[in-house]
Structures are given as C-alpha cells and as structure tokens.
Amino acid sequence: MPSDQARMLEAARAEPLWPKPPAWATALGAVGAAVLLAYPLLITSTFAQHTMILIFLYAVMAQSWNVIAGLSGQISLGHAMFFGIGAYTVGVLDTKFGITPWIGIVVGMLLAALAAVAVGIPTLRLKGHYFAIATLLIGSSVQIIFARWDWVGAASGLFLPLKRGSPWLDFQFHTSKVPYYYLSLAVAVLAFLVVWRLRRSRLGFRLQALRDDADAAASLGIAVARHKVLAFMISGAMMAAAGSFYTQYVLVLDPERVFSIDISIIVVLMTVVGGSGTLWGPALGAALLVPLSEYSRIWFGSTGRTIDLMIYGALIVAICMWRPSGLLSLFAERIRRRAASP
Amino acid sequence: MSLILDVKNLTKRFGGVVANNDISFDVKAGEILGIIGPNGAGKSTLFDLITNFQTPDSGHVFFQGREITGLRPDRISKLGIARTFQKLKPFSDLTVTENVMVGALARTPHMPEARNAALEALAFVDLLEKRNHFARELSTGQRKRLELARGLAMEPRLILMDEVTGGVDQRTIPGLVELVLELKRRGTTIVTIEHNMQVMMRISDRILALYAGRRIAFGPPQEVSNDPAVVDAYLGGTPDAA
Amino acid sequence: MSKEFIIQAIVSGVLMGLIYALVAVGLSLIFGLMEIVNFAHGEFLMWAMYASFWFWVLGLDPLFALPLVAALLGLAGLLVHYGIIRRLLTAPMLAQVCGTFGLAVAMRAAAQYLWTPDFRTITNPLIAGRVQIGPIFIGQPQLVAGAVCLLAFVLLWLFVTRTETGLALQATAQDRQAAAVMGIPTERMSALGWAIGLGCVGVAGTMLSTFFYVFPDVGASFAPLAFVAVALGGFGSILGSLVAGVLIGLVESLGGLLIDPSYKTLIVFGLYLAVVLVRPMGLFGRF
C-alpha cells in the first residue's frame, strides 16, 4: 500500500529532528538556572560556595571523560594526565614567564590536545581492555616524570605568585569565592554545550557509531582511528581546562595532587554513576559525589576521607550489575528519548 | 556494459585453510550478481577481502577501473561500495533512524538532510514504523533490513549484501526480493550472497559459485545451475544449500 | 660496576619476578576464561597481605597462615564470581571495566577506613635474616617467597595439564562454546578460575607480607606490574605469565641498578607499551 507508506513518510518527516523537551523540563531548567545564578548571592557560606565550585569543576571533568568513554566507548583510566597538563601549563607560564592564566588556559588545552594525539595514535588502535591498561600506565608514568622534573619544581611542585593587581586580569580572587563560582559555572556550561552540540552533530553520531560497532562504522565511511583520536583530543582539552581552573583556584600545584590517580578514578565513577554517554549523567554524578565527599570529610574527620569512595565504589559495582546505563536512566526510561511511535 | 568491479586472483589463507583460493570474477554496472556455495565455501570472506576488512594474501580488486586493494575499509566505502554483514552489526544504542543517519552522513554534513534521507531509506526497506525504536529492540529480520537501509543511505554505486533473506520470516522473502529488484531498477549494482537457490535463480543476472574456497562456476544462472561441478557440489553438499 | 652487584640484582629480580608471576597468572586465568580484566586484582593482593598481617598479630606466623589466606582468597573469588561477575558477563564493556574498577575503589577505601593508611610490617617472622651465597646476600624471606611462588606455579601447572578438571578448565578457556557442547560445566569452570586466580593472589600476598610494607595502596603499586606481565605473557597463557613475571622482575632490578632506581617503573611501563603496540597478543599468547 504505497499511499500508506507515503503518508507515514510524510508524518515522519514532520516530526521534529530533535525531540522537544516536555514543558515541565523546560520550566525545571529555567528554575534551576535561576537558582544557580542567584545561589552565591543568597548563600554566603564559603563552604557552601566552595562545594558548588567543586561540583562545577568535577562536572567539567566528568563531561570530558564522557566524550571519550561515553560517546566514543574508549575507556581511559589515565585522564589525570590531561588535568595535570592544564594545571602545569598555567602554573609554568605564570611563574616562569609571567603570562596571564587566560592565555595559559588556552595553551594548556592545546598542549593537552597534542598529548592526546601523541598518546592516542598508538594506543587507540588497541582493543578496549588494552587501551584502558595503557592509559592507566601512561597516566602514572607522566606523574613519575613530573615528580622528577626539577625545572617544574619536581615533587614539591609550584606555588603561583599572589598578585595584587587586577583580579580579573590575573584570574586571582583573594577576598571572595563568588567570581570563582561564576567562572566555574561558565566553564561547566561550556563543557555541557560541547557535549550537547556533539550529540547532535555528525562527529557525535560517528563517535557513537564506532562505539557501538567499529566495523559497521568503517563500512559507512567513518575513519575509525582518526575519529577516536579526535574525540580524545576534545576530551583532553576539556580536562585541561578543568586543571587550569583548579590551579587558579588553589594557586598551588604538585604532581601528587594534579596527576593523582584519584582524579582518573573519580571522573570514571561520576560519569558511570550518572550515566555515561548522556548529557546530564556526568553532572548528576558530580552533584552526588562532591557533596558526599565534602560532607563525609566534615562528619568523619580525616579517617572518614574514604567513606565517600567506599559508598561510591559499591554504588558503581551495583550500577554496572543492574543498570549499566547509569542512574539517569531511572528517569530517562520514563520520558524515553523518543517514545515508540504510535 | 562497463565493469564496475573487477576481482583478480584473490587468495586468503587462515593457518592451513585456504578460505579463498585464486578467485576471479567481475561485476557489470547495473547487474545483480549472485554468489552461491555451501557453508564454508568462502563467500563472506570474499566480501571481507573486497572491502579490505581482511587483507588478501594476494590478488587485486578494481572498482570502476581504480585499484582499491589494500585501501582502508572506510576509504573503500566512501568510493561508493556499501555492504551488510553476515553477523549483524547494528549500532545498538542508537535509534533506527539514527543508525541510518550515520550512513546518510557519509555524503552530507547536514543533519536535517541526513534525517530525511534516512527516513526515505527506511521507507524503502519498510522499516519506517520502527524508526524511533533502539536498534537493539529489533528482530533479526528487521536488523537485516536496518543494515540494508544504512548502507543504501550512503547512495552507493555497488552494494554487497550478505544473506539478506537468511534466517528471516519466510513470508517476508517476496518483499525482500521485490526490494532488491527495485534497487536494480534504480541503477544500483548488487552483489548478493544467498542460500535460497530459487530466489537466486530468479533475480541474478549472473552467478558465481564457490566451493571450498574455489570458484567452480561463473556465468548466467541457467548455465551455472547445469554445471556438473555445481550439481556435484550441491548434491554431495549441505542440504540447506539446495 | 662490580659483577657482584649485577648478580645480586639478577637474583633479587628473579625472586621478585616469581611473585609478580603468581599475581599475574590469576589475572591471566580469569581473562582467558571470560575475557574480563579484574581491575581489583591488586586490591585482592592488598587484602591478602592484610589477612596475613592480622593472622600474625593473632600469633600465627605467615608461613602457617599461608593455606588459610589462600583459602580465604579462593573463597572471595567464588563470592566475587557468583555475586558480581556472573551478571557482568553479558554487560557492555564499560560496565565490565567499571564493575571491577569500582570494586577496587571500594576495597581500597574500605581498607583505609578499617585499618588507616598506616604502613604496617610483620616483624620477626619465623623466617628472617639473610643468607650468603658466594659473594651475594639474599634476604631469607625473599628466598622463601620466591620458592613458595615457584612451587605454587608448579602445582598449578600440574593441575591444569594433568587433571581432568584442569584440562576442562583449559578447554573452556580455549573455546567456551565447544567446551559447553562437550558437557563441560563452563559456568563452574569460570568460578573455579576465580577461586584459583585469587587463591594464587592469596599465596603471593602472604609471602609478600613477610618482607614488604602492608598498606591500603600497596595493591595499586603491584597491580600495574601484573597487567604488564599478563600483556607480555599473553592474556590466558599460564606459562607466559611465569616468563613475563620473571622478566619484569629482572628488568626492574637491573634497570634500577643500571639506569636509575626512580625510573624502574617507567622502564617496565615502557616495556608494556612497546610489546602491546608491536604484538598485541603478547609474547606467547593467543589473542
């Protein structure tokens, strides 16, 4: 019945290319945005502001990992290397050459992308597990190298000089956390936009295709290796931006801190718990993990430092067993991306 | 008619087994070439060698007069060769439309254009109803049609189809046959692997018969089906190939 | 550099390598059976070391605690297999990696919570001191540890090649479907693989605890070496693990001696990358 077919095709074409979010979601988003913007003005507790800044920062990191692992399916267990590269670039440029962090951030992102090419070209050819192990080892190797590298302060790292000039030019705010709050929010929004845009672009489609089946992707004209490296570059640059921001926030850096395996671990945990490959999952993971660790630190003191990771580790095992698509899918299942057509 | 594909002396060994032994054949633009042979004859390997998913030990492949031997699979497909896989390879976590869009995006960077091309390809293989389902939710027969639509969305000059009617509901076979013929009418050249001999005899312009990695016959259907070597291979061969 | 130093480095490298090998073989066995990388392998080693330590606190020397720790770890292997891994077998790869990775995080955090990050040592074990052989000195605990690990390896080798169950295990690793068709209970073989794999870790951890610090992150420093050993030896290859483990021990001690001790880890990691890039299936293995 060709007329039936034609009618169905007509109806299908009339559907929006991207599903419109339901009205309640738009309303929720608007309220959420207003709350986030007003937050530091209403809540002046430094600790509460600090927690939010960390959530934004970790959301950027998780979103970065989401690009390489969630969208393209390549599991990096050494993502701290990009964080460290971003941190060291602003640090070195500032302390050695007096270059403003604003330029440092951009240079750091470029260097991280370059590192992603250098690491990615040989290792992204490897099958899944081998790539994961390779990144794990390269991540710790980079840490070892920086800890021995005298020019950048070896194990003791670098202290950024305190500046009393123009705070916005120097990217240093000594009296208030509010500028950091808005800056980190802006970076988080940018990271969010990158993933949002990717998921609706040809590149994003290709990454998801090669994640699901590399052979089929190649049979449809996708240069698999090059696209994986591209995703790794984007992901590395995002991670570096987070590292740079973090350095400007704490104004010290050392290999133990910025190349820590814990960073590599945490981005995995947050993304997988929230929902890898999704837009909101990484943010959800960050919003759960950061308060959990910050408050467990307060409640349990120094020994309690690990309660958050215990809970999170157990949670992630449970999620992998019963809901590999992450917590977000608990909601998403109901308002499924595109409900089956009538 | 001009040659679109010219395969010369392809050979592939796996350890001691010769999966393809010195296979040569050609495909004319606009025809349907059927490849037959019992299980293990080397049919799917031949597809893998042409598209370089596996590298031939020796031999050459020419597409539209240009040598493509050893080119990367994605380069080969960009030249205009689409294929389906015997072991189906859907993008499980994408929707049906998105799966096909990946194919359409090979020739256009514009998402709306790719979406419309995908919908048309889906309509062509009669899978439009399932457009918003995830690929993992489809039945085997539907997945086969999905792979076909995905490849067709690239608008290839040549498509290699691996057992499109194998393992699907018998009632859908006439529809699939009609689909292949319509594709030919639109000017696409088709190389198809099939177990179903009746279908093969009816739709193919020429047939290539393989047995144990060797070419045993190549020519018009009548000629091939009367070829003593083919008769021998099938009578002594596996019953499911009859 | 004197000859004695080099011989000394070779001997201690081989002894340490035997321990790496025993840790690696468990990883290799598990991967061979079900294509899952146990990212919590180092943490099980750490828990085995703690088990040995606490037995020692209770008055049981590591040498006598050895069978107990091995049995406990074997039991843990069964628990992990039936409790967690079975559900992950059909899961996407991300879930497989993160499942055991999450387990590692939880186990390390739990150890830190329960036993603090302090470094602990077993003092005055039954076997202590050093022996002099010719010009070189060897710590007795290291010597015994190496010997025990080698013995465990021989037993494992005999089990896998000479017993019916062992052959069934091998068959399952080679071709799971074919093994199932032949009536081998492949599911139980996987569980057995976990039990044996972690049992080996139990032995290695106990022996390691007689001369190495026990602390929550100790597993994280050994696990990468085990990954390297398995990749070198080829995932699934038992003999490969042995050769690769010893090779890594040698590279580490000689590299530390000849180049710079602080770079020995880098040398080993470099070895991994070199091997995986050139020969992804490892030196001995099937892929």
Structure write-up:
The complex is a heterotrimer of chains A (342), B (242) and C (287). Chain A contains 16 helices and two strands. With 342 residues, chain A is mainly α. In chain A, helix 2 runs antiparallel to helix 8 and helix 5 packs antiparallel against helix 11. Chain A is globular and about 75 Å long. Chain A starts with a helix and ends in a 10-residue tail after the last helix. Chain B has 242 residues and is an alpha/beta fold. Chain B has two domains: 165 residues, P-loop containing nucleotide triphosphate hydrolases (Rossmann fold, 3-Layer(aba) Sandwich); 68 residues. Chain B contains nine helices and ten strands. The longest helix of chain B has 14 residues. Chain C is mainly alpha-helical. In chain C, helix 1 packs across helix 6, helix 5 crosses helix 6 and helix 5 packs antiparallel against helix 8. Chain C is globular, with a radius of gyration of 19 Å.
In short:
The complex is a heterotrimer of chains A (342), B (242) and C (287). Chain A contains 16 helices and two strands. By secondary structure, chain A is an all-alpha fold.
| Tertiary shape of chain B | globular
Tell me the overall shape of chain C. Answer: globular
Residues in β-strands, percent of chain C: under 5%
CATH topology of the largest domain in chain B: Rossmann fold
Could you give the distance between the termini of chain B? 31 Å
- Average of the residue pLDDT scores of chain C: 87
Q: Strand pairing plus helix content of chain B: what structural class?
A: alpha/beta
What's the oligomerization state? heterotrimer
Task: Flag low-confidence runs of chain C.
Answer: none
- What is the SS-derived class of chain C? mainly alpha
- CATH architecture designation of the largest domain in chain B: 3-Layer(aba) Sandwich
Distance between the termini of chain C: 41 Å
CATH level-four homologous superfamily name of the largest domain in chain B:
P-loop containing nucleotide triphosphate hydrolases
Percentage of β-strand residues of chain B: 25-35%
